[in-house]
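Repro:
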Amino acid sequence: MASNIRSLLMRANRLLGANLVEANLVKLEDLEVASERLLELVEAGRPRETTVLGLLAYQQKVLREEDVIQYAVDNDGVGLVDLRTYDVPDDVKRALDPAACWATWSVPFDREEDFHFIATAYYLSPAVRAHWEKQCDGPILWFATTLGGVADFIEKIEADRASAAAALAKPFA
């Protein structure tokens, strides 16, 4: 993993965890356990598992992902999106950086005029918002979604790219 992506991933998870504790959605002791496990997963190179939110919600079961989404909607006014039903424009798909998306658990999924639409499971992490604000050349409309929604979206893009590359690599018959 590139050092800039690793740094982004660590900041995104650290600040998400801090905000989950501050919002009383999780206890500090539980976050510490998840953070230790996160380091192991980063070393193992398994992007779909490198999420402190996933560890807290699905391994430790001390938090419900739905509660985090509801908190972001209620307190920050973000929208909701189910990426499985969204037809993403080809130019947005081509510009996608899967490594940054895995690190931030966020995906740009549309653009209308100057507005960028980003779906994220990590809205509560200021590092995530700062990263995408720096990447986008216009205002962002944020949408909350699930970890699974983000992961499935990224994996589909990666699979489509791999299929396209394999098709190009085949000799003409």
